[in-house]
Amino acid sequence: MEEKVVEIQGLMKSFGDLDVLKGVDLDLYKGENLVVLGKSGSGKSVLIKIMVGLLKQDEGSMKVLGQEVSTLGTKALNELRLKIGFSFQNSALYDSMTVRENMEFPLVRNVKNLTRGEITRKIEELLDSVGLPQSINQMPSELSGGQKKRIGVARTLILNPEIMLYDEPTAGLDPITCMDINNLIVQVREQYNTSSIVITHDLTCAKVTGDRQAVLLDGQFKAIGSFDDVFAHAKDGRVKSFYDYNFIDS
Amino acid sequence: MAGDADRKPVLSKKIDKFFTGLASAFSFVKRFFREVFVPPYELKEVVHQCYRIGVESLPLISLTGFIVGIVFTNQSRPSLSEFGATSWLPSLISIAVVRAMGPLVTALIAAGKMGSSIGAEIGSMKVTEQIDAMEVSATNPFKFLVVTRVLATTFMIPVLVMYTDFVALMGSFLSVNANEMVSMTTFFVQVFESISFLDIISSVLKSLLFGFTIGIVGCYKGYNSSKGTEGVGRAANSAVVMAMFLIFIEELLVLQIVNAIRMM
């Protein structure tokens, strides 16, 4: 049986009167890329923020690498976070630091006894793998949206995570850059042997990057399976309509 | 599970919001004192922030201090000359500058310059998820952003206050020298005869308090700014207003305490 790296059961989360997640069940298996699709505000990002302890669920269970996230203390949570790479929607590069400093930031704080040469070598290797070796001394403000995303991914990879979480990796990018980012997500899985959750509402991204698709509607997963299973044989009208980039409210 | 938004206000929404805000500010300060003594200490960032707060403020502080010294001397001269007491100018100016004007002017300028800058910077980091990014990379953003900045303002404001005192006294000396033909030695001998150890100690302690206030208010407002660019602007603005308000209250309280000590 395949090893589960993330197990979610009956997860519920509300913000005031708004119930965002209403009993979500989902598993992520080792080595797979799982795409979570859903319209804006459906709780996709909330789900992965609970996974890294940025938010706390109201009810239900969220186990990551066998550990119940909500019960972890600060130290244990930080140890778990080192095994999870989080690529933010807007890249979240520290805008007062150069690319080198951005990438050094998590490394020097979490990996002890590294020499200056080892740090530089690691940074250069990762920048090479995302195709931006020349950006090392640039400021984030000098980079394009696609370049920022790539650097953001490189920064998360610097700690060798086991799980990668991508929050809207292609949002706001042109189709060619989107394709580059999609290929990067696939490449990261192959090169670094990660398991990933990709949050998106871009179906091209979903098709290229995902082994399985999960469609989140009304706070619950309405369909989970391969791209063809989910969309070709969709019983739920809204899932089908998602395929046509069109939502019909019930 | 009911969130904060579901809770019914106890008295009225405004009063409820006021006390909730107060509790939140109190727990922010409490967290600062809990985190400041625990490693890692982020010393490099503290030094960087000290440089930003100290060195980058020097031109503005120098100009303001110098002008305050000249203006205060020129404004005081007519009143003293009515009693033929212009020779008391160095004493009067030194007491006023060291006891009140130096710390107050420096703190108000720093609140405007640093308070808004800290509030806007941290607010913008919050809005663009940079603080979340630090947190998920197992770095404590509170320690890196808040503790370092509050320490930097707390330690740098007293240094800036001493510098302002010096520059203001130099401005005053130029005015006194030009009008009363008093030498620098005479001027400064009179200055140091007039100020006591208590004046200097209270000035330094007050400056530490002002520095802490500017840093913690700026960080608190930025750290709790709501989403969006409007929230960042509001955080910067309210950081200045709140810091200035607290500085005046602290000035009043410290004055009462020092006066009580003087009477003992």
UniProtKB/TrEMBL annotation, chain A:
Q: Name one Pfam family in it.
A: ABC_tran
Q: What is the originating organism of this protein?
A: Algoriphagus iocasae
What keywords are annotated for this sequence in UniProt? ATP-binding, Nucleotide-binding, Transport
Recorded hits in PROSITE patterns, A to Z, give: ABC_TRANSPORTER_1 (PS00211), ABC_TRANSPORTER_2 (PS50893)
Q: Name one GO molecular function term.
A: ATP binding
InterPro entries in UniProt: AAA+_ATPase (IPR003593), ABC_transporter-like_ATP-bd (IPR003439), ABC_transporter-like_CS (IPR017871), P-loop_NTPase (IPR027417)
- Report domain ABC transporter positions: 6-243
Supply the name of the protein: Phospholipid/cholesterol/gamma-HCH transport system ATP-binding protein
UniProtKB/TrEMBL annotation, chain B:
Q: Which domain of life is it from?
A: Bacteria
For this UniProt entry, the molecular function terms from Gene Ontology, in alphabetical order, are: phospholipid transporter activity
Name it.
Answer: Phospholipid/cholesterol/gamma-HCH transport system permease protein
A GO CC annotation recorded here is: ATP-binding cassette (ABC) transporter complex
Q: Which UniProt keywords apply?
A: Membrane, Transmembrane, Transmembrane helix
Transmembrane ranges?
53-72, 92-111, 144-163, 204-223, 235-258
Identify the species of origin. Answer: Algoriphagus iocasae
Q: Which InterPro entries match?
A: Permease_MalE (IPR030802)
